[in-house]
Structure formats: structure tokens, C-alpha cells
Design brief:
137 residues; CPE0013-like fold; 2 domains; five-stranded mixed beta sheet; three-stranded antiparallel beta sheet; 3 helices; 31% strand; binds iron/sulfur cluster
């Protein structure tokens, strides 16, 4: 290994074959990938070595109890995941949500939206609230 060079091993997940990749990143930022059987794997290995990205999966609280599951529409920089998760922990949805709804656009300028993956809870209707009140009497 050359001076100032770092190496990184990963498993390519771009197809089921699962090739073991080895990336050598030089101090000038150039990257050499070994173990990839195709161009897709070389690109995956290069991205893993230089700027790994992951799909964000999370849940958001709602005003009616059950949280809503959500995920980013595409991978975002792995280094941003924790910070985004922390900010989302303070969010409470107070409008009805349906699967496929966009909950946030262009997360941290990553070009990915946060999308609900299931319907959220149904807000209680005023009629139900009346029933509940009458039962308490
Ligand atoms: S390197 Fe190519 S063949 Fe190997 S797992 Fe990745 S995509 Fe599949």
C-alpha cells in the first residue's frame, strides 16, 4: 500500500452475486477498485469508498398515536443520516398521511424526498369524540 493510501473492503450489493470489493483510495482522492466483475460494481465500490450513501428509513410521530413509517426516495450521504434522524425526532404530523405522500422535499439538498410508506392513523372524527364524551358521563 502506498503512503497516504487507505483501503476499504465492502460487499457489492448492486446485484445478487455479492462480489467482495477492495478499494484503494490515494491521498489525491483517486480510487482503484479490485474484485468487481462489472462496471456497475466498480461504480458502487468507488461510491462506497469516496461518499457512501444509504436510504434513510424512519418513523414520524403523529398527533394521533401510531407513527408513520417513511423512507427517502433515494440514498443520501451516510454522514447525514444521524443528523436528519435527530431533526425528524422532533416532528409530529398533525394532518392525515397516505402511503406515497411526500413528507419532506430534497432532504438536506440531497435530491431525495422523504416519502410515507404506509397510511398514517385516521384522526378521530368529531362524531367519535362525542361518543367518547357521552360514555364518560
Ligand atoms: S461487481 Fe457486478 S457482478 Fe459483482 S456483485 Fe457487483 S454488480 Fe454484481
Amino acid at each position: 500500500m502506498a503512503e497516504g493510501q487507505r483501503t476499504l473492503e465492502s460487499l457489492c450489493i448492486a446485484c445478487p452475486r455479492g462480489c467482495r470489493l477492495r478499494a484503494a483510495v490515494a491521498s489525491d482522492g483517486t480510487c482503484r477498485i479490485e474484485g468487481a466483475r462489472c462496471k456497475l460494481g466498480r461504480e458502487y465500490g468507488r461510491q462506497e469508498a469516496l461518499s457512501p450513501r444509504r436510504v434513510l428509513t424512519t418513523t414520524l410521530a403523529t398527533a394521533w398515536g401510531r407513527p408513520v413509517p417513511a423512507r427517502s426516495s433515494r440514498p443520501i450521504e451516510r454522514g447525514l443520516l444521524l443528523d436528519v434522524q435527530r431533526r425528524l425526532a422532533d416532528v409530529v404530523l398533525d394532518t392525515p398521511v397516505h402511503a406515497g405522500d411526500t413528507l419532506a422535499s430534497n432532504i438536506d439538498g440531497q435530491g431525495a424526498d422523504l416519502v410515507a410508506t404506509a397510511d398514517g392513523p385516521v384522526p378521530p372524527s368529531p362524531a367519535h369524540e362525542d361518543v367518547g364524551r357521552s360514555m364518560d358521563c
